[in-house]
């Protein structure tokens, strides 16, 4: 007898056994499902109303919680966006091209030179400020740009540093900026 018929016999026997096991499993699954349906029907009667109430309460809680989360996120965005815009503006001012910096310093000094006798600037602008004004150059300050003008006895200081100007504009325009960004 050849090997082929033996293999076919084994395969046939295996397939019959698999079919028998699958058939038994299908019957068992059907029986278990039928029992589960019967149990569910029994439990459903008394608990259905309670479950529906619990589901509705949970839905309301989740909805309320989600609304609070959305409000919190919106408030955070409303706070972060103006701060981000402010930081970007400050960064832009710190990277002004020399020609723009000179233009701004000329404007500031031209308008305020009469209000003081001394001027301060950052180290990078020292030579330019000395060239642009007849005020006494009193030293360097830590800023990204701009000047501080001071009277002779130091009792009046006009802060025209770019940081101070931007901060003042930001504070004055915060509501308008917020309205533009968020409607």
TrEMBL record:
It is found in: Cell membrane. The keyword Ribosomal protein does not apply. It comes from the Archaea. Keywords: ATP synthesis, Cell membrane, Hydrogen ion transport, Ion transport, Membrane, Transport. GO terms for cellular component: plasma membrane; proton-transporting two-sector ATPase complex, catalytic domain. GO terms for molecular function: ATP binding; proton-transporting ATP synthase activity, rotational mechanism; proton-transporting ATPase activity, rotational mechanism. One of its GO terms (biological process) is proton motive force-driven plasma membrane ATP synthesis. Its main location: membrane. It is a peripheral membrane protein. Belongs to the V-ATPase E subunit family. Component of the A-type ATP synthase that produces ATP from ADP in the presence of a proton gradient across the membrane. Has multiple subunits with at least A(3), B(3), C, D, E, F, H, I and proteolipid K(x). This is A-type ATP synthase subunit E.
